[in-house]
Amino acid sequence: MKDERIEQAKLKIRSEMAIIILYGVAVSFLVKTLVFKMSLQESIIEYLILILFPLYQFIRMHMLKVSIYSEQGKKSSIKYLFVAIGVLVVASIVLIFNSIKTSAVYDWHSPVIFLFIFIVLFVAIFLLTNKFNYYRGHKYEKEFDDDK
After folding, report:
1. pTM listed for this prediction
2. Alpha-carbon gap, residue 131 to 124, rounded angstroms
């Protein structure tokens, strides 16, 4: 029989590792594009991880009937969304500008479309999960309060 504190500590460590990995992927994306001057298409793995990570979290929370929505957290999460989009846009603009500077025949359409699709998916997933968590949070609260 395992101690519940040990199990909770293991779960906390694993969730912290997941967040560290997500930040590592974001840093990898920035380093690849800004330092190594790789195209956005060469960072497709990071692109997919950054899109699918919150989607997986959303699905698991739904399966476990957990909602992390809070009114106070909504404001800070929107702030973090704008920061993430701002960093991504600045990094992409720098990448495109550097590529145009080095090559007169650089096709800037493809990276811009790639960036636009990423931002649309990122914002859509954020808004949908936030709205669904709001709805589910109230539903779960009502459901579990009725059990008493």
Report:
1. 0.63
2. 11
Tally of domains within the chain: 1
pLDDT digit of tens for each residue in the chain (148 aa)? 578 888 999 989 998 998 899 889 888 887 887 778 777 778 888 878 887 887 888 888 878 877 766 666 667 777 877 887 887 778 777 777 777 777 777 676 777 777 788 788 888 888 887 788 777 777 777 776 765 5
**Exposure on the CB side of residue 18, measured as CA atoms within 13 A:** 13
Q: How far apart are CA 68 and CA 146, in angstroms?
A: 20
Closest by CA position to 118, among listed 92, 138, 143: 92
Q: Which domain does 97 fall in, by range? A: 4-146
DSSP one-letter code for 42: G
The alpha-helical segments, DSSP class H, found in the chain are: 4-30, 44-63, 71-102, 109-146
Q: How far apart are CA 126 and CA 120, in angstroms?
A: 10
